[in-house]
Amino acid sequence: MDLFVFAFLTLFVTGVTAAENSQENMMKHEMSSMGGQMKMESRHEMMKQHSEEQEEEYSESAVGYPGRATQVSRTIRVDASDKMRFAADSWQFKAGETVRFVVTNSGYLKHEFVIGDQGKMREHAEEMAAAGEYGMKHDSPNAISLEAGETGELLWTFTDQGRFEAACNEPGHYEAGMNMALVVQ
């Protein structure tokens, strides 16, 4: 009889311990999943805020504003390749000039083409790096993002004289040399 009680108690205690461990692991998993979800929501919020800020900032700025197709004075073709360079070191424009940029991603990596001043470019590059693997979707008028093989257009009217930039701010691309000067006279 003592053997029967011992066996029963052993099975009972083992079952209770297993159930407690299972419940504890499930709670840890749920909390871990919630943390991941919270991170995703935070990144989503950050990307949404980024797009809204950029749209507001570039609707009209010292760099210019989105151009109209009827006002385009010239078209510039841009190759965004995995060599991390644009074709020219700089481009010259006149204040008031509207340009159509036709950008082709001839590489295998995602690239972008963004027009802005150097300070804003650095801020943008840092935001892109913070977004990490989730990336950022551009809804701002001064930028286009292109997957491998895609071609897109950006119409831009330059307003003020100065020295600005065109760049790819995908993580590491700007630092590798994928930027160039835009000089407006």
Number of domains: 1
- Work out the strand percent: 25-35%
Task: Quickly give the CATH architecture.
Answer: Sandwich
Distance between the termini: 101 Å
- At CATH level 3, the topology is Immunoglobulin-like
The radius of gyration is 27 Å
State the strand order across the main sheet. 3-9-8-5-6
> What kind of assembly state do the chains in view correspond to?
single chain
Quickly give the structural class: alpha+beta
Low-confidence stretches: 5-40, 50-59
Helix content percent band: 25-40%
Overall mean pLDDT score?
Answer: 75
Q: Enumerate how many helices there are, as a single number.
A: 2
Element-by-element helix/strand order = HEEEEEHEEEE
Q: CATH superfamily assignment?
A: Cupredoxins -  blue copper proteins
- How many extended strands? 9
